[in-house]
Amino acid sequence: MEISLAEVAEGYTQNISMLKMAKTLLESGCSESLSQPAAIVDELRVELANTSKSMRREELQLKKFEDLKRESAILLERLKYVMENVPTKLPQQKTAVSAQCRNETIQSIEPTKPSVPQVPLVQMIGCQYLDFLTVDEFKTVPKYMKGRLTYDKVNSMIEKLDKVYIEKYKIRRLKKSSLNDVNKKRLDAYRLQETEETKGLYFIVEQDIADFSSLKMDSVLRNIFTILRHCGLIFEIRGGGYTRLVCYSRY
């Protein structure tokens, strides 16, 4: 059975009252045998004060423990949420140099391009050319752009588009003498698509998508491009009858 501080204090108070009476009798000279109770009264006063201090300290410690318990419960809930919402795609981390190149490209190529919310570098993850969207970036996309598109669907499409870039620039890096007739024609087309404005940039056009993927230029794919432009992963350079989808260089 637990005893409260108030009950302990009341017990000591009663003992002190009785001992005070005994001390009064002692001081009036009634009996020398009452000197011992007087000393006990003083000891009890000291003991009561010390007990009160100890109990106050214990109460403070208990309050700190309850606060820590509440904070731990909140942290546990947050950890559960994080575990349940881990992105399904987590490729290698993008380097700081890549982020710097992207910022320089934005300033030099599209000075009037709307600013894009900055995302911590640790979240800049992607394929060889394109970046995957992070959960936070996907949340910034307006509902009218998303339509019925989900986070996983958008990143799946990004992965397919990235393969188009890979295949195109695999051909672009080969010597013309090592190419077959089909790829020689493609290489000639790539050179015609390039301008002074695209120098040093990586881009694809609609024909590349048709050549190297099963994707179709339908409303879904156009919505994907709109989302990627909104999040600052690609931008367009038009001219010469081409719409070039430029990704921000990772190199």
From TrEMBL:
User: Which PANTHER family has this protein been placed in?
Assistant: SPINDLE AND KINETOCHORE-ASSOCIATED PROTEIN 1 (PTHR28573)
A Pfam family for this UniProt protein?
SKA1
Write the protein's name: SKA complex subunit 1
Which stretch is the leader sequence? none
Q: Does the keyword Coiled coil apply?
A: yes
Keywords of the record, alphabetical order, are:
Coiled coil
Which Gene Ontology cellular-component terms appear in the entry?
mitotic spindle; outer kinetochore; spindle microtubule
Q: Which InterPro entries match?
A: SKA1, SKA1_MBD_sf
UniProt GO MF annotations = microtubule binding
Organism name? Elysia marginata
Q: Which residues form a coiled coil?
A: 41-68
**Which protein family is named in the record?**
Belongs to the SKA1 family.
- Any one of the GO BP annotations: mitotic cell cycle
